[in-house]
Design brief:
This protein has 178 residues and is mainly α. The chain has eight helices and no strands. It has a single domain, classed as Four Helix Bundle (Hemerythrin (Met), subunit A) (Up-down Bundle), CATH 1.20.120.1630.
């Protein structure tokens, strides 16, 4: 994370500034974020309780290593998104002069950052040695689908060219699935 932060401080400080905005303007997005915080806290509380009660030896070591690699790859996908899209803000808004990004991971799916996030969230409990957080973090999938659907309404309304991009790039999250 420090290497990524250092890189973006040098190459794209505007991205980091956008990522620091936390006040969502879209009312539906505020609701989604609230539920996201609940899932996040519940998931890590479940992991902590599980590890406290049962110890960390319930997940096979190779599964932990594979999950660690998966979390890292999910993080790398998110960093690729940041490198490709300087407007990848934490909140849903369209800025002046913002353009539709169709290169890099956006040439594969419309919302690659959310794919990276799902990978990270689903594998984090296993990487920490617990199965208990997985069912809770699975709740991020319908929540992110809700976020994507609402975000696309905003982007189609406010970002010139986004509707055409949606027509060309059919899949939102997983190629050949959705």
């Amino acid at each position: 994370m420090l290497a990524a932060l250092s890189y973006f401080l040098k190459t794209d400080p505007e991205l980091l500034e956008r990522r620091m905005k936390y006040i969502e303007k879209e009312p539906e997005q505020r609701t989604i974020i609230f539920f996201g915080y609940l899932i996040f806290v519940a998931g890590f509380l479940a992991i902590g309780y599980d590890l406290h009660q049962h110890g960390s030896n319930q997940v096979p070591f190779l599964a932990v290593l594979a999950a660690d690699a998966g979390v890292f790859l999910g993080y790398c996908l998110i960093l690729w998104v940041f490198k490709e899209n300087s407007y990848a803000a934490r909140i849903i808004e369209v800025e002046e002069n913002q353009k539709v990004i169709t290169t890099g991971p956006y040439s594969i799916v419309r919302h690659p950052m959310y794919l990276g996030s799902i990978i990270m969230y689903l594998l984090t409990p296993i990487a920490l040695g617990s199965w208990w957080g997985v069912p809770i973090f699975l709740l991020f999938i319908p929540l992110l689908i809700w976020r994507i659907l609402n975000e696309e309404k905003v982007l189609q309304r406010d970002l010139p060219g986004y509707l055409e991009y949606c027509r060309k790039k059919r899949y939102r999250l997983l190629p050949h699935v959705w």
